[in-house]
Write a structure and sequence with these properties.
- With 537 residues, this protein is mainly α.
- Among the domains are: 184 residues, no CATH class; 102 residues, no CATH class.
- It is built from 22 helices and six strands.
- The strands form three sheets. Strands 1-4 form a two-stranded antiparallel sheet.
- α4 crosses α13, α15 runs parallel beside α18 and α17 runs antiparallel to α18.
- The radius of gyration is 25 Å and the shape is globular.
Length: 537
């Protein structure tokens, strides 16, 4: 007797291909029409927008063999985003090879273990401090550089730690995986969601930073409180955990494991050389760009920010180098983020400059850890291969817009959408965008793939219903992040659960209420962008 085969969600490539085919078929039946568009100045850049009440019908332009040429055009149209993904992905592959984050996490855990043994901290619940600090750290990883797949490697570290502290495997997964994806949801600098979505929307990269920081803080705080509440419940009554029996495997393996986090650091001459070279570059930049005009909202302040960063880099670089090359690499990551902020706010950097910054960080990280130049670029190519699917999806998804544009039905779709939502107002339209992204995320958990699929259309629709494109990007960001933590289509989630030995059914039942609650919070965080004048929105 043959067993019934379970339904398998098609790959993202398959989904995108059939959407392109469906778009082509639609050009034969949907009436063609166009809006008049005009170019307006928005801040430092120009943007093409729809002229209100200018929709008119035009001759049909059905698409046939263009289904295949649309992919080529899609790659050309999104070439800058594709190159950005490749460079950032390759740079972080080099960075991850140095094991700097692993070293930093191990050092943190060892420091917390030492504090726990000191009398001064006897009355403080060090476990709570440890869980909170770990979650803040991983939330920042998700918010700043889009950590995702890397959390699978940390699950094997944090589950034994959580079990040893009297908690369960769910807590172990939550403090790294859940925290990272909450950071992903409230991200400030994530190049794979915000960077791509803002790039496709014609927005200044990483603009709207101030309100995003507030969103990140609120979402992370709620997540930490939720995990601490659950952890306290399990600590008080271990049998209340849905993983109590299954965690017997981990309990047998974790006797006396606390305090055994070994840090393998290397001290290299090359790291000192990298520090010296970068210091010379920073000094040169300090002389040539002594003052930087930092734009925050409607205010512009002239600040000697680069000389200040140079001085701090000199001090922190010397301190971290004495501890080991991996700590110096962490310092490089910190200054990459700081210079990214300065570049965006002071020099209006876009994808080329930011990709260049990450590339320098990746190469410098590899050399600092004694990786030969040949191996640095071998690692870079491996990173490009790893991120290739995301980059290719962006190009393929660009073909959808090409078909709709060449078939002259994209404006008809936009006109119909705006007419159908005319009576539900801005809040209702924003809610529809948010819900649509959240549902689509259950099928396509890749943020970059979804951005390429829907952001170009959503950006124009936002213009028509008088919602800022920045608000639209935030709605996409929230919808992309929250349901990722429950969708069975996420390879990262299933990978983490597999390592943790947590059945998906148990995880889904445990987290569903949290997902629903966070979905409501996400929508509430969108509302101020409609009703108040916020910087960047």
């Amino acid at each position: 007797m043959k067993s019934k085969t379970s339904f398998k969600i098609p790959s993202t490539f398959t989904i995108v291909f059939f959407i392109v085919v469906a778009a082509s078929v639609a050009t034969w039946f949907v009436p063609s029409g166009e809006f008049v568009r005009e170019t307006i100045q928005v801040g430092e850049s120009q943007r093409e927008v729809v002229v209100p009440d200018s929709y008119h019908k035009v001759d049909n332009a059905p698409q046939t063999w263009q289904v295949f040429s649309a992919f080529f055009k899609g790659f050309v149209k999104t070439a800058n985003i594709i190159v950005f993904i490749f460079i950032v992905g390759g740079a972080f592959w080099i960075f991850n090879h140095t094991k700097a984050i692993d070293t930093g996490v191990s050092a943190f855990l060892n420091s917390m273990n030492k504090l726990q043994k000191m009398r001064l901290f006897a009355k403080i619940n060090v476990n709570v401090v440890v869980l909170t600090c770990i979650m803040i750290m991983f939330s920042l990883f998700g918010a700043v550089f889009g950590m995702s797949e890397e959390t699978i490697a940390f699950v094997i570290i944090f589950i034994p730690l959580a079990i040893s502290m009297g908690y369960d495997s769910i807590v172990g997964v939550s403090i790294c995986y859940l925290a990272t994806h909450i950071g992903f949801t409230g991200a400030m600098f994530n190049p794979f969601t915000i960077g791509i979505a803002q790039g496709l929307s014609g927005l200044p990269l990483f603009s709207g930073l101030e309100y995003r920081i507030l969103c990140w803080f609120i979402l992370t705080a709620i997540c930490i409180l939720f995990v601490l509440w659950y952890a306290r419940k399990v600590k008080k009554n271990p049998q209340s955990s849905p993983m109590y029996k299954l965690d017997e495997y981990w309990r047998k393996r974790t006797d006396g494991i606390v305090g055994e986090n070994k840090i393998e650091v290397t001290r290299t001459i090359s790291s000192w050389i990298v520090w010296g070279v970068l210091l010379i570059v920073f000094i040169y930049l300090s002389v040539t760009n002594t003052y930087t005009n930092i734009s925050l909202g409607n205010t512009v302040n002239s600040v000697p920010i680069i000389p200040i960063l140079t001085l701090v880099f000199f001090v922190l670089g010397f301190i971290t180098l004495r501890n080991g090359a991996q700590f110096f690499v962490l310092n490089l990551l910190l200054f990459t983020v700081l210079f990214l902020i300065v570049g965006v706010l002071g020099y209006h950097w876009y994808v080329m400059e930011i990709a260049t910054l990450f590339l320098v960080m990746g190469i410098a990280s590899g050399i600092a850890c004694n990786v030969s130049i040949d191996n640095v670029f071998r690692l870079f190519l491996e990173g490009c291969k790893d991120i290739m699917s995301a980059a290719l999806i962006v190009g393929m998804a660009g073909g959808i817009i090409i078909i709709l544009q060449d078939g002259k039905i994209i404006d008809t779709i936009l006109f119909s959408m705006s007419a159908s939502m005319e009576n539900i107002g801005q809040t209702g339209s924003l809610g529809m965008m948010y819900v649509f992204t959240s549902i689509l995320n259950l099928i396509i958990p890749s943020g970059s793939a979804k951005a390429a699929l829907i952001v170009p259309i959503m950006a124009q629709f936002a213009d028509m219903v008088a919602i800022s494109r920045q608000t639209m990007v935030l709605a996409f960001q929230m919808g992309d992040g929250i349901t990722t933590m429950i969708t069975p289509a996420s390879g990262v989630l299933l990978g983490c659960l597999g390592v943790a030995r947590i059945p998906y059914s148990i995880w889904a039942k445990w987290i569903i209420k949290f997902i629903l609650f966070m979905s409501v919070i996400g929508f509430l965080l969108l509302l101020p962008t409609v009703f108040f004048s916020l910087t960047g929105f």
